[in-house]
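1st attempt posting a full record on here, be nice pls
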Amino acid sequence: MTLLPFRKPELNDAELVRSCTAATYCSDLSFSNLYLLKEKYGTEILFHMEHLIRRFTGSGRLQGYTFPVGGKSETIDACLRAIEADAVERGAPLKYCLLTEKQANYLYEYYGKRAQFTSDNGDADYLYKRENLADLPGTLYHKKRNHISRFLRTCPTARFEALTQENAKDALWVAEQWLHAQEDNAGLEHEFRAINHAINQMEILQLCGGIVYVEQQPVSMAIASLINPRVADIHYEKCIPAMRDAYPYINRELARYLDVDFINREEDLNMEGLRQAKLSYHPDLILKKMKAEIYVN
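the predicted structure (as tokens):
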């Protein structure tokens, strides 16, 4: 048995990855995340029978394989057999992560009681209708509108500008100020490196986003990309420490700028503060993810 030829994702994989993920809403299948976070999670990829399969080799929260996506449904079983044989050849447990409910059900039908599933709420994606984030309608969003009004009273010259190659250095400066203000900034340097890399590869990764300026000073930035033409993924959203009230403002302005139906604001990583922040925008869908371990005979 020859091991499956998994390898690190490269920039020239973008078109093929996007062709496999055109129907997904999942942030973990955004090519930008796949590429920018490959070192953090030890991400490897494989195109097998026209399916995209990922394998996570790092020591973090993501371990094992992912369900095949993008190919024909009649070749999924053959992919699952190839994945199982690969795990056996490596002498590694057969684990899956980032499973949607539909994918988990498929594995249960395929493996039966040999498959043991666990759910981790920290992996769930928060999705919102773009119009709700852009308009903040009704009583549900009363507090958000008040936060923005307070920010604009304090900073009446605030303005949003689309992220471009010309102003990208200002977005990086905001990220630097954010990093320096964090207590555990050494542990977050991998995120800053990813932001830096994203800005340097902005055109190739097809990134978009925006920057908020007060007078001529950048105070907040956001970086996004399209998972597919209907769904945008917000990768990074940062403010300088003195301007935390700019968060709801850039959130609204970016939603007004994006031409999509849904916005994915990614997972909360089981961080309670982050979870409450995402829930405060009243998600229209929480896309839960599961893990599975398969007991191989």
